[in-house]
Structures are given as C-alpha cells and as structure tokens.
Design a protein that fits this description.
single chain, mainly beta
C-alpha cells in the first residue's frame, strides 16, 4: 500500500545581502550572492533546474538501533524559473523511498512526500545570479527512532530522494524577417535569413538552435530541443505519477509555445507543439508564421519559445543500521 505523508518543512531564514556578505546564523532558506545588478552579467545560462544533496549526517552513514535520525535534503534552484518579477512560485515535491518503513518506526515512510516551498525557490535573476535554496526535512520535526527489521544483525538500505517539479525554459532569438525573399536588391539589407545557435538558458531542457527558412507567404522555423540537465523529463500531465509510478509513455514529453510580438502565435507540427516527444534526449518542432503583407526591406524581430515540462532529479545515500549492543 502506498503511503502519502505530507510533512512540513523546517525553515530558518538566511538572506545573503546584496553586497555579498551574509547575515549571521544558520540558514535553510536563502538567496545567492549578488553581482550588484550588473547589466552585462548574463544569468540565463546553465543546464540545471533544482540541485539536491543530503545534509551531512542526516541520515548518518552508520547508526545503532534505538538512536534517532532524520532526512534533510538541501534543495537549490540554480535555474531561471520562476523569475522574481513574474510573481509565480515553483510547484514541486520531494518524495523519499527505497527503505522499509519499520526501520524508521514509521515516522518516515517509504513513499512519503512533501511539497517544496515554491514561494522561496525562486529562479536566478540579474540581481540574484545564484538562485535560492531551502532544506526539506523528514519527519516534520524531531527525529525518527531507527530499528533493524526482522531481528537482523544490520540493515543497510539506500535512501532515495526524488524531486519532481514543474519548470519552464524560455528562450528568445532574433530572427530575420524578409517580406520579399526573392528580391535581387540586397546591398542595404540589415539582416539575412540564418540559423541561430542558442546554447543553454538556465534550465535542464534547452532550446539549442533555431533554423530559419522562408517562402513567399510563410516564415519557417525548425526548433531543436534537448534534455541537458541529467535528469528525466516527465510530461506535464503526469506530475502526480512522479516519481515512483512513471511508465515509459509518460516521460520525454514537453509542451512548446512559439510567439512573436509582431507576427503573433506560430503554427507548429507535430500537434501544434503539445505533447512533443523527445527521442534519445532530443526533439524537433517545425513551426511557421504567416509572412507579413509588407514588401519593405528585411528586418530583425525577436521570437519567444517557451517549453513547459515536469522534471525529475534524484539522489541517494546509504545508511547502515546496526542492532543495539547487548547489555551486560
């Protein structure tokens, strides 16, 4: 029987000041160091969303039956979603598993889940280029008394912690719009149709490049997408199944939306950008805008590409529980 255990989050605030100096004290929530709002600093880079790690000795590598412990997972949002100015929060959860619940006196159960503090885990920005972090604890407070199941000499399970969270990759690319692609007058053109390489955008799924072509009445784009974060992409509709009930047909699926302030919303294939499936970590979407009626010169305009998905990252650690020493 699967148990869903909603635990709280132990949070002690530490805010790193914009000068790069931190306030005194210990912290389970915080902001990264500031670059002082340097307009030349490009924070929209990197290939990770959330990063996880167990806090040292929580749980310890070895412990005796009868002692107490807890699981503490540090969660860092080192990507760019959600942006501070959007007012949005991160929707996600941490789920633990891999162990016999009786080993932790049922205070921590296999499959226990708790929501991430989404209003705290805000993405990177110009003024906060290192992102934010929080610590999630199982159980909510105090510790779980450990035991060795079935009177064994020891029990050494892997403790797995998985984060499942909604994320969005946003990329902008300046593209060349040529209302009359077959004209022979090219000397004074400000741009030419070309492919654009984009790199990473501060997210685990990247729009790696945009390839452009033109027809008389359409502007065509081939958009290349890749999983660059090292985790698993889960379809946006399958968040509730993540992490332990996923099947093959639920993974490697993203939703893509392509738009331009001057050209409107693009028409895309397959399936107009919805439920785009990646193969071996890569996917391709074909989109087009209707060409403007103007017959003026070529010009540059930005297009925006948004990719929505659920992402899953997992970590694990091993704990060895020894039977309590026999009393004399």
């Amino acid at each position: 029987m699967k148990h869903t255990y909603l635990a709280g989050i132990t949070l002690v605030v530490m805010l790193l000041m914009l000068t790069g100096q931190s306030c005194a004290g210990t912290g389970t929530i915080g902001w990264g160091n500031s670059q002082g709002g340097n307009a030349d600093y490009d924070y929209r880079t990197g290939s990770r969303g959330l990063m996880l790690q167990f806090i040292r000795n929580a749980p310890p590598p070895e412990i005796f039956a009868g002692d107490g412990t807890n699981f503490q997972i540090e969660v860092r949002n080192v990507g760019t979603y959600p942006s501070p100015e959007s007012g949005s929060s991160l929707d996600g959860k941490i789920v633990v598993g891999g162990f016999d619940s009786t080993a932790f006196s049922n205070s921590i159960r296999n499959g226990d889940s708790q929501s991430l503090p989404g209003n705290i885990l805000i993405g990177k920005s110009q003024f906060n280029p290192e992102g934010s972090y929080a610590i999630v604890s199982f159980p909510t407070s105090g510790v779980a008394t450990v035991d060795v199941p079935q009177n064994l000499n020891y029990y050494d399970p892997w403790i797995i912690a998985s984060a499942c969270y909604h994320y969005t990759t946003t990329a902008g690319a300046n593209v060349c719009i040529d209302p009359d692609p077959y004209t022979i007058q090219r000397e004074n053109e400000v741009c030419t149709v070309r492919d654009v390489s984009l790199g990473s955008q501060g997210a685990p799924v990247a729009i790696t490049s945009v390839e452009e072509d033109v027809m008389t009445n359409r502007i065509l784009f081939k958009i290349n997408i890749a999983n660059v974060g090292g985790g698993t992409i889960v379809g946006p509709d399958y968040y509730s199944e993540c992490p332990f009930n996923l099947r093959n047909e639920m993974i490697d699926i993203v939703d893509v939306h392509v738009s331009s302030s001057s050209l409107g919303t693009a028409s895309c294939q397959p399936n107009n950008g919805q439920d785009l499936r990646l193969l071996n970590g890569r996917g391709v979407l074909y989109c087009y805008f209707t060409a403007p009626a103007s017959t003026g010169p070529a010009y540059e305009t930005p297009i925006q590409i948004d990719v929505d998905y659920v992402y899953m990252d997992s970590i694990k650690t091993r704990v060895k529980i020894f039977s309590a020493p026999a009393s004399n």
